[in-house]
Here is the input.
Amino acid sequence: MRVLIVSKTHMPHGQCCMGGLTFEGESIRLVMQDGHYPPDNTDLTPGHIYNMQFVPKHSTKPPHIEDVLVQAYTLHGALEKPMLEFVKELGVSIWNGGPDELFDGKLQWTDSGSGYINEEEIPAQSVGFWVPDQPLRKSIYYEKVRYSCNLRGAWYSLPYIGYDEPVEVIPAGTLIRVSLARWWDQNGTTELRCPLQLSGWYNL
Here is the structure.
């Protein structure tokens, strides 16, 4: 099956999370045969297309239903058209508007503007594409990059976890990849949550 690599994001322990999109419009997250995520120095590259064999990984908790076990892959080529055009051709759903539109509208927000879901309302997926209707601006918070926007007087902020060099502004109308982190609690002070993250952007 042909798979386009659409994102590469940081993970602990020298691993990375590789997001893929099949030519049937299915989002997948790549796990190697040994059950680990790819290493930082993987030869899998965003923007490249691979002929890939994989099987579903069934031991995942919703909304992280996209994990697959990769059995083999070979390079097919590179995407030669804008990512937004390609996604639309496949009929993949795209969220449009403000951050409150993301993940079926089931996100909750902290006082500081960080998004998350909890076990009370779980969306149908943990990754997706978004076209914001206003620019997202870079800021540094505790030495980490975040992108923020203001909606109806409230600030919304997404941590950036991708490998590409951060830009100062992501313009309105840009196709963006967003995801939900794995379930965790903040040292027992919160319920289990999946925080909202910004994985990357396309064709700036």
Remarks:
- The mean pLDDT is 94.
- Residues 94-201 form one domain.
